[in-house]
Design a protein that fits this description.
The chain is of the alpha+beta class. 19% of the residues lie in helices and 36% in strands. 40% of the residues are buried. Residues 254-410 form the Thioredoxin domain.
């Protein structure tokens, strides 16, 4: 099956794999060579390089691992008939669909699998045995600059966007780092400094992106961010050890007159769930507003899912409310069900509707606004909202993540230690007897 044939069925998502007639001999046709690869996406005239490893030691379960600095993301490779492969991006409803060519190269596309999605596919090609990202070893250009440190970034699209912070580390010509904003982080970036220019890229499943910039004579930086199929955005930056973002605990809050959160939404089986259900009475409840399309949401889930599993007997519950790329419960059952299975989620998952901040704000009218996916709301044993955190910063952010986890555990320990209200203890003593 060639790439033009794959296009016609790729958008069918899960149905594609379940209905496709696989070749009886999975070894038929060519397979990618095992080892390191270098790929390139092409967006207009912009090229976004990425690196991956292909491991087919287990012939029946080959794995493609995307590499970004120290980050590793594994994806199952499905071998189709002939020379074609299909790599589903785990919980993201997108895939790499490609052919292994006669010369051993891989050519293909990164495509959305969301039914009805009309966005452009991103073509890519990859070569085996190349372990560099932007510049081959020995071809680096000398530079007098060192970008290591913290940077204030002003980002512009059609209008100025919320400010960002970049934390960069340069060793020789090698450059790594992360960009943080009020909604989360970029995940780990990897690149190079060449003379008075620099470039960083990232691809770990969601849309690939590249940061291309120039180092000016005064030490400031200017450049452009190209992100997948979306528009380019410009940025300006200045090194600033005191660079800071707004307090994420103060960006989203309850409207005047509200002390509680109220919603009734379906779970993945269509059963309506509300915070008034007995299951949540007298408990500390964590409400996580997410989307499977959102990388910061999946990073947050990798933190919350094991934390909940370790603490659920202490009188704490959690609810994830997913806003997905289609306003369809059957589709959400597939995407959010995939998330549940991937991360071993043991708390309830509800469907909020289409992935839109305005829609999320309407479904949760007590909030001043829905500013970011994810947003975390912590409710005490009396049912009062005690804390709201906008966005999520993962492990790559270093001290920011460490402080987040430290505060999280301190705050949750304090709320869990609070007494169960007498009215809840009397009416629902069985469900909260292990709360301390």
């Amino acid at each position: 099956m060639k790439i033009n044939q794959i296009k016609s069925v790729a958008l069918a998502g899960a149905t594609f794999l379940s209905s496709f007639a696989f070749a009886d001999d999975h070894s038929a046709g060519k397979s990618p060579k095992q080892g390191i690869w270098r790929g390139e996406f092409v967006i207009s005239e912009t090229r976004i390089p990425f690196n991956f490893e292909y491991n087919n030691k287990d012939k029946e379960h080959p794995v493609l691992t995307l590499l970004n600095g120290t980050r590793r993301d594994d994806f199952k490779v499905t071998k189709l008939s002939g020379d074609s492969i299909f790599v589903k991006m785990n919980t993201y409803d997108a895939a790499l669909v490609a052919n292994v060519e006669s010369d051993g190269k891989i050519t293909g596309e990164y495509r959305s699998l969301v039914p009805g999605f009309r966005g452009s596919a991103l073509p890519f090609s990859a070569e085996h045995g190349k372990d560099y990202r932007f510049v081959e070893k020995g071809k680096e250009q000398p530079t007098k600059h060192n970008l290591s440190g913290k940077w204030d970034l002003a980002v512009y699209s059609k209008a100025k966007m919320p400010d960002n912070i970049a934390i960069l580390k340069q060793e020789g010509n090698k450059l790594t780092g992360v960009v943080m904003s009020t909604v989360g982080d970029s995940r780990e970036l990897e690149g190079v400094v060449q003379g008075d220019e620099f470039v960083l890229s990232h691809f770990s499943g969601p849309n690939p992106r590249v940061y291309k910039g120039k180092i000016n004579e005064d030490g400031s930086i200017t450049g452009v961010i190209s992100s997948g199929i979306y528009d380019n955005t410009k940025f300006e930056g200045n090194k600033n050890a005191q660079a800071a973002l707004p307090d994420p605990y103060k960006l989203t809050f309850l409207k005047e007159g509200y002390s509680k959160l109220d919603f009734t939404l379906p779970d993945l089986d269509g059963k309506n769930v509300s915070l008034s259900n007995d299951k949540y009475k007298g408990k500390v409840v964590i409400v996580e507003i997410i989307g499977t399309w959102c990388p910061n949401c999946t990073d947050q889930t990798t933190f919350l899912a094991p934390w909940y599993k370790a603490n659920k007997e202490r009188g704490v519950e959690a609810i994830a409310i997913g806003f997905e790329q289609k306003d369809d419960l059957a589709y959400a059952k597939y995407t959010l069900g995939t998330l549940k299975k991937k991360y071993g989620i043991e708390y309830d998952i509800l469907f909020g509707g289409i992935a839109d901040k305005k829609v999320a704000s309407e479904k949760l009218p007590a909030l001043n606004r829905m500013m970011a996916f994810p947003t975390t709301i912590i409710i005490d044993r009396k049912g009062d909202v005690r804390q709201i955190h906008t966005g999520y910063t993962g492990e790559i952010t270093g001290d920011y993540f460490t402080e987040y986890v430290k505060k999280w555990n301190k705050d949750l320990d304090a709320l869990i230690a609070e007494p169960v209200p007498a009215s809840f203890a009397a009416s629902n003593s069985k469900s909260v007897k292990n709360s301390k």
